[in-house]
Each structure stands twice: as C-alpha cells, then as structure tokens.
Amino acid sequence: MTRPRPLGYAIAIAVFLIDQLSKWYVVDILRLHERLQITVLPIFDLTWVRNFGVSMGLLTASTDVARWLLVALTGVIATGVAVWLWRERKTPDMVALGLVLGGALGNILDRVRLGYVADFLDLHFGDLHPFLVFNVADAAITIGVLLLLLRAFLTRDGADRSENEHA
Fold first, then answer.
1. Cα–Cα dist 43/21, whole Å
2. Does the annotation mark 127 as catalytic?
3. The sheet that has 37-41: what strands, in order across it?
4. Known active-site residue 45
5. Among residues 119, 122, 127, 160, which one is catalytic?
C-alpha cells in the first residue's frame, strides 16, 4: 500500500489555517474580546474565553514558567503525533492524526503569541452547557482523537485476526 503522507499533513495545515483565520476574525474583525458575547443562534453563541490551561481546565499555566512548560509539553506531544503521522499507513488514521496535529499547532501558536488559547465557540441548550467554550483547534483535536479511538476499538488488521485464529 502506498503511503499518502501528504494527506495527513495537508489536513494539519488546513486545520491550522482555519483555526488561525477564525481566531483572527473573532478578535480583529468582530472584536469579541471587547464585546464578550455575540448570540448567533438560540443554541450557539460566540463567547470570549482566554484559556490558560488545556482541556477542561487541566494544567492551568498561571505563571510564565508554567506557560512555557505547557508549550514545551504540547510541542513534544505534537512532535510525537507528527512522527506517528509520518509512519502511519492507514488513510483514516492519517486523517485523524492530521486533525490532531493541526489543532495542536494552532493552540500552541496561541500560547506562544498570546500566553493563552483563544476560545469562542459556545454550544448550549438553554442554560445547559454540555461543552466548555472551545475553538476550531479544540474541535479538530477532539474529532481526531475520537476517530482514532473508534478505529482502535471497532477495526482490526488482517494480521491481528490471523494471529487470534491461530492462538
């Protein structure tokens, strides 16, 4: 099987660009950081949040040292994903890894440039907020990880099946 590596990296670049363009739009055009919230639909708002941590408020970087340690940690993880992507042979996994890599790079750039990640997508149902406020990078990372998990649990390689049949 040929390894269409450029596909995963092209997806990563596309996610990175869409993420950064959306952040530019909400900050520089909509000036969301001044307005704080814009209702788009009854179930969807643009809500300004400066995220100093990672998912669900974990690993909050409250000092400059913590910020740069978080940049380093996420950089190491992104490098691991890039290497995995380079070695990956299955197209669906390349797509998923491209989503994760592009999202990670988008959030890393925010953390380097701003000291925090700009979040603004707020999906809710009345007063029920099942998700934290997020951004395009977060969505891409989440979708990519879910795809990888689904593939890991729901599919098996032919080699795995033949090993199990002979055991």
1. 23
2. no
3. 37-41, 44-51, 117-123
4. no
5. 119
